[in-house]
Queue: 2 jobs
Job 1
Amino acid sequence: MQLADQLFVTRSAINRWESGSRIPDNRMIAQIARVLDVDINILLNATIDRNEAPNVILVDDSKIIVRGCLPILEEALPGARIYGFTRPSEAIACAEANRIALAFLDIEMGTMSGLDLCRTLLSINPRTNVVFLTAYVRYAFDAWSTGASGFMRKPLTPEGIRDQLAHLRYPFWTGGSGK
């Protein structure tokens, strides 16, 4: 009750955090660390499930791009489950069935743009990190308005992926030497 009062949240919010049914966002974790006088990294690491491999998706309407990028993602994210899709509807179905930690999205795709797909993925899980992967820099401003974590120019490289991992809104454990 005291912690709830100091954080200006309900006791039920604290109960959900304690039971693991909800996880506080990064700003709230920082406030909890301040109130409890503990290192924020202790609290952040407590939210990481190292037994669960993160789900990463790549969505591009080109089969050649998907096939070529999957091995690059596997190299950069050795502990992740990686899925490639050429249809946004397949990615949405995957996100509805699984918690997606990171999504690499092309912007120009047939019937649904990557910008719209980003919004849909974030409505399913607001903690999904989205990185746009495109050949068109002109989309950068539109991409930022969606709540995405990053923007990369094609071609995808392991170094580019690792750079993006360092700047994600919601970091996750990759199973390798990274986060």
Job 2
Amino acid sequence: MNVEDFVRERIKWLGHASFRIDGAKETVYIDPWKLKDPAPADIICITHSHFDHLSPEDVALIRKDSTVIVGPPDCKADFGKSFREISPGGSLKIDDVEIEAVHSYNTNKDFHPKSNNWVGFIISLDGFRIYHSGDSDLIPEMNQVRADVALLPVGGTYTMTINEAVQAAKAINAKVTVPMHCGDIVGDLKDRETFKRQSGNTVIILNPTKGA
């Protein structure tokens, strides 16, 4: 399977910054929120503690006894022993899935300060590296990200703007870039099309799936 087929067939955009990745063996969620008809999760990755990213109610819908929940320390909620702390620069392996935490922060606003040590993720499974930036602006650390797929916000206000996302996509130079963080709370779904027109990278637009 090539990376474009992997994105279209295995990565589900659940709206906003929420994704489900259907690996050959593991099902991985990132920032599950407003889930409909959810599927059980093997791994849940949470980028930071804002309500639209850390949603204990949505985690409860997909959590099994064996589910591992990964996130910064302030995302532990009441997850107990299922929770694994991670900070920028940290990594861990859960079964066949490798998870790396990278910096995610704002540079010209105060919603997501670098001092909070909130994260983006690089998730490696089935031979692909998927980068989820979290609620980030265009930051220097993106020059060091190596990924096959980049999931980048384009809605502005709390994250990078479309123009900044275009620069981020160039810096990361993933084989496929998927726009996100628009169409709910901030941004318009049309922002995805604008980003695609302006980007020199391969962009796949995923429509929010009705199921999760």
